[in-house]
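User: Please fill in residues for this 607-position structure.
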C-alpha cells in the first residue's frame, strides 16, 4: 500500500490504504477540498448545511461519487464541471449500518469537478452535543460542539470519512446573535457580521480533525502563537493554568522541527466533553477537568500539542494503525514535559502510564493487545484503549534506549519531514524505521544491537516483550516508603506531593484497604472533597470497591456533572447494577453521544 499523498495539484488520484470503516471510493474519485456553509439552529438541534466538494477523478470513468453519511437528511445534490453552472444529479442513500452509517451515492459525469449537497443534520447526530444554558458555566446561552473522531464526521458533513483521505476546507458558519463560532482553522476576521464567521484550513487534514464549537466564548492570550478560548467565567483561570503553552510549543519545535499550523489555541469545553482533549489543528478541544490550579494535569495539553506532529502532520491511514498517532504522541508528550518540568515529572508520568497499561492488558483479550489491532466488524472507538498509547510509547522508548536520544531524535525529525501531510499505514512506518534506523551501519553504531528490538513482536503480538523497558520513578520509590509507614499506622508528610505522587500513593493501597483505613485516609486528607478531578476519580473508585458510603453523595455529584469517559466508565463499571442504573438515568442527558454509547453498552451488560 502506498501513502495518501498530500499533493493537491491536478493529476491521477494516488493509491491509498483500504479503509474498512468507510464506504468511499477514493480509488476512483477523491475529494480534495470542502467548502461549507452552515447554519446552526439551537431550537431544532440541527445544522442546515451546503457542502461543495471539489473532486479529482482517477480517469477510470467512475459513474458515482460515494460518500459516508449517518442520519443526514439529504435535500438536493448537484454537479458542475466548473463550479459556476450546476445541474441536478441523482443520488441514493444505501442501507444504514449501526456502525458505519449509510453510503451516499451521487451520479457524476467524466467532467464533474464540483459536487454540491444541501443537507441537514439529525438531532441524534453522534458528533454533535447540544447543551442547554443550564449545562454551561455561564448558564445564559446554549452551547454546541463537535467530536468527529473516529468516524463521527459523517454525522454532520457528507464526505469521505476516512483518516486516509485528507482535504483542505473553508467554511462560513451562521450563528444566533450573541454567540461565537470557532473552528480548527484560521478565522477570517474581515466580516463585520457578528452572526457570521468565516474559516480557512489550507493544509490538508483528515475528516476526523474537522471541528466546530458555538457558544458564549472569550479569549485570553498566552503567547504570540498560543491562547485559550473558554466561557467568560473560566477563561482567566484556564489561561493561568495553560500559561506555559508557548514554552511547550518552543520545546516541541526544538525537538522535532517547526510547528506548521501557525497557531496553537485551546478551547475549554463544558464538562460533558467525553475526552481529555482532542487535537483539532490550531484549536485543541479540552476538558475542564484538567484545570487543577497547579498545572499538574497539563500533560493533556502537551499530549494534544504533540499531535501537531504525530497524528495531524503524519496520520494513521486506517483505525487499525491508530498506534501510529497515539504511541508516538505519548512518547513526544513526555519529552515535552521533560524539557519544561524536568525528568522527575516525566518519569512519574511514564510510571503511571505503565501502571495503566498493566491494568489494560489484564482486561483485554490477546487479540486486542496488539498494536496493529483488527477492527473488522467493530466500531473503531473500541480500539481507543491505553494499549496503542502506552505500549506504542514503550516501543519507541526501547528504540531510543538502543540507539541513543540524539540518533533517535534525528530519525524522528526526518520521519515527520518525510511523511508530512500524509496518512500512512503501519507497514509504511515500519519500513521507514527499518530502512533509516534499524539497518544502521554496525561500524558506526557498534554499541547497538538492533536485533534485540523484535519489531514484529512489539507490533503484531499480544502483551509486552520480555525486553520491554519498565519506567522507574525515584519519586515513587519515596512514596512507597511513606505508604509502608502509613499502613503501619505512622503519620507521614505529604505537603509537597504532586498529583502524580498522590495517584501512586492511592494506587499502591491494598486492593481492599477496608472502611477503617478509608475513613482514616479521608479524615487525614479530605479526599472526598478533593478539587483535583484526577485524584478524586481514583478515590471514588476506591470508595466503590470498599463500600465507603460517605463518598457516595460526592460520587453521584461527580457522575452527573462530568462526562469524561476515562472517569465515568470505570466508576459505573465498579458500581452495583441498581445504583449504577439510578445514577445513569439522571446523568445520561448531559453526556455526549459517544459517552452515551459506551455506557449504554455497559449498562446493558449489567442486566
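Assistant: Residues filled in for all 607 positions:
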Amino acid at each position: 500500500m502506498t501513502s495518501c499523498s498530500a499533493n493537491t495539484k491536478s493529476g491521477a488520484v494516488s493509491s491509498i490504504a483500504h479503509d474498512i470503516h468507510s464506504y468511499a471510493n477514493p480509488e476512483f474519485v477523491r475529494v480534495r477540498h470542502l467548502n461549507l456553509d452552515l447554519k446552526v439552529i439551537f431550537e431544532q438541534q440541527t445544522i442546515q448545511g451546503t457542502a461543495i466538494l471539489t473532486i479529482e477523478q482517477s480517469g477510470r470513468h467512475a459513474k458515482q461519487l460515494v460518500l459516508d453519511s449517518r442520519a443526514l437528511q439529504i435535500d438536493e445534490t448537484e454537479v458542475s464541471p466548473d463550479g459556476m453552472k450546476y445541474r441536478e444529479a441523482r443520488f441514493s442513500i444505501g442501507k444504514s449500518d449501526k456502525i458505519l452509517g449509510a453510503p451516499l451515492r451521487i451520479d457524476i459525469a467524466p467532467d464533474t469537478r464540483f459536487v454540491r449537497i444541501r443537507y441537514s443534520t439529525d438531532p441524534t447526530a453522534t458528533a454533535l452535543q447540544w447543551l442547554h444554558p443550564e449545562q454551561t458555566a455561564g448558564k445564559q446561552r446554549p452551547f454546541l460542539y463537535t467530536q468527529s473522531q473516529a468516524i463521527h464526521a459523517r454525522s454532520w458533513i457528507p464526505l469521505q470519512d476516512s483518516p486516509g483521505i485528507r482535504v483542505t476546507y473553508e467554511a462560513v458558519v451562521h450563528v444566533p446573535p450573541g454567540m461565537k463560532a470557532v473552528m480548527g482553522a484560521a478565522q477570517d476576521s474581515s466580516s463585520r457580521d457578528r452572526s457570521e464567521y468565516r474559516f480557512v484550513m489550507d493544509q490538508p487534514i483528515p475528516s476526523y480533525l474537522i471541528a466546530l464549537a458555538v457558544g458564549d466564548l472569550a479569549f485570553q492570550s498566552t503567547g504570540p502563537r498560543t491562547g485559550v478560548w473558554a466561557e467568560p467565567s473560566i477563561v482567566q483561570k484556564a489561561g493561568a493554568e495553560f500559561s506555559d503553552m508557548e514554552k511547550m510549543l518552543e520545546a516541541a519545535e526544538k525537538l522535532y522541527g517547526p510547528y506548521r499550523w501557525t497557531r496553537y489555541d485551546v478551547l475549554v469545553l463544558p464538562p460533558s466533553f467525553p475526552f481529555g482533549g482532542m487535537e483539532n489543528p490550531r484549536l485543541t478541544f479540552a476538558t475542564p477537568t484538567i484545570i487543577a490550579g497547579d498545572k499538574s494535569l497539563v500533560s493533556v495539553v502537551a499530549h494534544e500539542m504533540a499531535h501537531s506532529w504525530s497524528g495531524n502532520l503524519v496520520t494513521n491511514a486506517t483505525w487499525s494503525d491508530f498506534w501510529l498517532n497515539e504511541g508516538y504522541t505519548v512518547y513526544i508528550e513526555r519529552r515535552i514535559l521533560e524539557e519544561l518540568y524536568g525528568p522527575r515529572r516525566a518519569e512519574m508520568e511514564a510510571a503511571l502510564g505503565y501502571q495503566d497499561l498493566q491494568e489494560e492488558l489484564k482486561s483485554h483479550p490477546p487479540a486486542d493487545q496488539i498494536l496493529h489491532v483488527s477492527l473488522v466488524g467493530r466500531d473503531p472507538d473500541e480500539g481507543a484503549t491505553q494499549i496503542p498509547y502506552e505500549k506504542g510509547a514503550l516501543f519507541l522508548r526501547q528504540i531510543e534506549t538502543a540507539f541513543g536520544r540524539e540518533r533517535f531524535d534525528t530519525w524522528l525529525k526526518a520521519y515527520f519531514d518525510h511523511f508530512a501531510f500524509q496518512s500512512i499505514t503501519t507497514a509504511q512506518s515500519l519500513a521507514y524505521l527499518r530502512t533509516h534506523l534499524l539497518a544502521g551501519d554496525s561500524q558506526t553504531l557498534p554499541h547497538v544491537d538492533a536485533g534485540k528490538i523484535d519489531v514484529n513482536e512489539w507490533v503484531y503480538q499480544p502483551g509486552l516483550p520480555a525486553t520491554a523497558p519498565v519506567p522507574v520513578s525515584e519519586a515513587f520509590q519515596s512514596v512507597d516508603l511513606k505508604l509502608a509507614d502509613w499502613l503501619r499506622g505512622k503519620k507521614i508528610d505529604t505537603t509537597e506531593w504532586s498529583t502524580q505522587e498522590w495517584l501512586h500513593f492511592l494506587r499502591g493501597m491494598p486492593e481492599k484497604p477496608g472502611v477503617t483505613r478509608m475513613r482514616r485516609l479521608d479524615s487525614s486528607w479530605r479526599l472526598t472533597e478533593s478539587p483535583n478531578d484526577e485524584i478524586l476519580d481514583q478515590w471514588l473508585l476506591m470508595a466503590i470497591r470498599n463500600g465507603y458510603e460517605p463518598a457516595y453523595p460526592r460520587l453521584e455529584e461527580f457522575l452527573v456533572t462530568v462526562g469524561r469517559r476515562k472517569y465515568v466508565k470505570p466508576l459505573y463499571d465498579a458500581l452495583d447494577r441498581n445504583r449504577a442504573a439510578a445514577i445513569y438515568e439522571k446523568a445520561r442527558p448531559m453526556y455526549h453521544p459517544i459517552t452515551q454509547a459506551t455506557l449504554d453498552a455497559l449498562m446493558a451488560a449489567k442486566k
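For context: The chain has three domains: 1-122+143-203, 322-460, 474-606.
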